[in-house]
Each structure stands twice: as structure tokens, then as C-alpha cells.
Amino acid sequence: MEQQQSGSKAYLFGIVMVAVLGGLLFGYDTAVISGAEKGLQAFFKNAGDFTYTDGWHGFTSSSALIGCIIGSAFSGMLATKLGRKNSLFIAGLLFFISALGSMDPEFLLFDYGVPTYSLLIMFNIYRIIGGIGVGLASAICPMYISEVAPSNIRGMLVSWNQFAIIFGQLVVYFVNFFILGDHIQPLVEEMGKGLAAITPAAQWTVTTGWRYMFGSEAVPAGLFALLICFVPETPRFLVSIGKDDKALHVLQRINGSERGAYVLKRIKETITIKIEPIMTYGAMCIFIGIMLSVFQQAVGINAVLYYAPRIFGDMGMDNPMMITVFMGIVNILFTLVAIFTVEKWGRKPLLIYGSLGMALGAFGVAVTFGHAGMELFTAASLLIYSASFMFSWGPICWVLIAEIFPNTIRGQAVAVAVAFQWIFNFIVSSTFVPMFNMHLTEGDDFGHWFTYGLYGCICVIAALFVWRLVPETKGKTLEDMSKLWKWKGYDPVRRVGKMFE
């Protein structure tokens, strides 16, 4: 009886933990390339029918992001037509197919171990398939969690999705580290001279190691696709398709009988129309959601996460993969800071303080990178930069995107916002290396300080954007978002504070 009146926390946390597995796969899939890319590059450098250039390698390393853009763009339509649960199941299948296909792109069509132009295309197709899964999961996992979570702990629970993303990256750093074992990555100067020119300790990495790295994702992907079958659909989607009884059942299991009935009433008040035009609540609503996504990527964090081993190697670190693992552990710890403070401190303070911390770290890297004797200071600045992101823009952006839009446009609006996120992820990831290697004169460090100086300036602008435009949503229900954006003459500078006092 007590459980019926107060709701079951075990039930809530159980279904949320299944959903955040999608976040873990998101992190796993995007970071697996960091350990595999050198072996993959050396493998295709041996192709006889085309030249595998640095441009091709840059595209291959980031091709999954093309799928992310596609998946996020269609996430709103799928979430609205098929539901949140079924869309996540599709994402799990795509992760599974991509993992096995990336491990063995020759399957049924090509000779095993023979690099060709056609094989490269097939490999990238499998990576794009996985990227579509990432795009779906990145939009729908936080949406699912926000729609089942009670308002007083919603921010904390959505933040667990970011924890899962970072944990997935840490897991794959460890997996890549253990797969490499005593083997080493091939040197750049060895690539393109044929497999025989590559040191014996690195040959296994080129022929086999990268395959195991990609294939290892099949285990969590299969588990996610299986477990998602046992979680309920979200109450807000159930109400939107007329299944009020099922929605009430889920709400009462989570919130208790009385509270569940009240929440159902509030949901029905805001879903009198199943879908409204995306601009129903004004341009400012969509603009803020899009810019949250843009700033999360424009601050440059994925340039560090995707190329961490190379960056630490260029700094002269003896074991860049081990330093990358250490950075992953630091990222996990600072993500926990957000999880346990987001409901106490609110969304805006964390974003503002995180932006300023990132700016400090980025400017530190810009000033010290490449200077003899400053390696530890540069590494510390990178860690400050990364850690500041992890307690702010990493989790809090997802929290706001999942909760800031009204119910009747959430699927469409989240899809648009997340699509912009992946577009700018691709822009940042693909421009980092050429910007970093820019020189005004031969041998100067212009690209080093320009790149991180630019990221630092964007971080300062992001802090100003949050301070002046973003509303605080701490403790408010998703239904309150309709009131916020329907307020005639809404002025985000002067009126948000009054409404959310």
C-alpha cells in the first residue's frame, strides 16, 4: 500500500537505467574511433586501387557524424509516429549492425583483409548506420527520461544520461587499451610503405586490432536492444495516442496513486492537440534550444575527446593512451558533480560557471601548447577545460533540451536542436586538425594558440548567452513550459526571473 501511495523508486530507476544504456552506446560509438583510427589508417594505406589520403582518413574518422545528423533529424518523426520506446529499439538494432559490420566490412562481398576503395565505402556505410543510431539515441534517450521522471528529480535523472555517455567513452578507452595489450600503434612514417614496413608489434593492430575495437560494441548494443523491450512507453506519448489507462498505470507506479492521477490531468490539459506547428510558441523558444546545441559543440570539446591520444602524443607524453584513460576518469567524476547539484543549484549557474572554467582551460592551452617545459601546465589546462565541460554543458545542455520545449512540439523541436548539435559536432571535428596545424610562417605555433583561443572566446560568449537568454527550469513540470512560452510579450531578459521565482 505504501508503494502505491508514494510510487516505486526502484521501478523508476530501473527503466531510467535501461534508457541511459542508450547514452552509454552514444559515448562508446563516438569514442571507439580514438583507439582504432591509427590501425585503420595504416590498413587502408595499403590499398592498391586508390590513395588513402589524410582527407579520406579525416572523413572516415568522422563519417559516423553524418549518420548522427540523419538520425537526429528523423528522431522527432520517429518518436512522434512510433513512440519513444520503439525508436530506441531501432537505435539499438542499428548500433548492433554497425558494430558487426565495422568489424568485418568484407562480409559476403569482399576478400577478407584486402583493402580496396569499395571496402572503404562499405566500412563508412556501416559507421554511418551506427551514427544514425547515435543520432536517435542522443535525442530520444533524454526525451524518454524527462517524460517519465518526476519534476523534482528530472534534472538529476536526465544528467545520468550524460554520465552514461562519458562512462561509455571511458569504457571504450579501457577496452581499446586492453585490446592493444603489448601491441603498439603504427607510426605515421610507416603508413603507406606496405604492411612489411610496419614494425612487427604494430602489424596485429593494423590487421586485427581495430576490428576487435569496433566489434566490442556489439555486446552492449545487443543488451540495450533486448532490455528496451521490457520498459514502458512514456506516459506523455501514451496520452497523445489516446491510451490514458496505460499512461495512468505508468504514472501511478512512478508517482503513487494520487500524484499519478494529478500528473495525468496536467498532461491532458496540454495535449489537447497531439502536434502543433513547431513555431507555435514563437521563434525565441526554438532559437534558444538550437543555440544551446550549437554552443555545446562550438566550445570545441569533441576536438579533445576524439583526438585525445594524438593531442597528448604531440605534447610529448610517453603513454598518450594512459593519459586519455585518466582524462576519462576525471570526466566521470565531474559529471557526477552535475548530477548531484543540478536540482540544488539550477541549470543556469552550472552552465555559466562551466563556460568560464572552459574558457580558462582553453586560454591556458593556447598560451602553453608546444612550449618546452610547459607540458604539465598544458595537460592541466586540458583537464580543466574538459572537467568544466563535464559538470556544465555536457549534461545540462541535454537536460534543458529535453525539458524546455512544450509537450506538443517537443518531438519536432528536440529533433531540430539535436540535428544542429551534430552538424556543429561535424564542423568542429573536421576543422580541428587543419586549424591546429595552421602556420603563418614556417614552424610557428599560430594554429595552436588560434584554435584554443577561438574555443576560449566562444566559451565566454556562451556564458553571456546563458546569463541573458536562457530561462531557469529547475523544479518546474514539463507542462509549465507551455505557460512560459505562451506568455505574451515574453522577454527572456526581464521576465524569466519573475515567472520562475
What does this structure look like?
The protein is an all-alpha fold. The protein is 74% helix and 0% strand. It is globular, with a radius of gyration of 23 Å. Residues 492-501 have low confidence and may be disordered.
Describe the structure concisely for a colleague.
The protein is mainly alpha-helical and 501 residues long. The protein has helices at residues 2-6, 9-31, 33-45, 54-62, 64-81, 84-103, 117-148, 154-180, 200-215, 218-227, 235-240, 244-255, 257-270, 283-298, 301-314, 320-345, 347-368, 375-390, 393-403, 410-436, 446-469, 480-486, 496-499. The two termini are 35 Å apart.
Query: Kindly, what is the distance between the CA atoms of the first and last residues, rounded to a whole number of angstroms?
Result: 35 Å
What is Rg?
A: 23 Å
Task: Tell me, rounded to a whole number, the average pLDDT.
Answer: 84
Helical content, roughly?
A: over 70%
Structural class: mainly alpha
Main pleated-sheet profile? none
Quaternary state of this entry equals single chain
Task: Output the number of helix runs.
Answer: 23
The residue ranges in which pLDDT falls below 50 over 5 or more consecutive positions are 492-501
What is the percentage of strand-forming residues?
Answer: under 5%
Q: What global shape is seen?
A: globular
Order of helical and strand elements: HHHHHHHHHHHHHHHHHHHHHHH
The total beta strand count reads 0
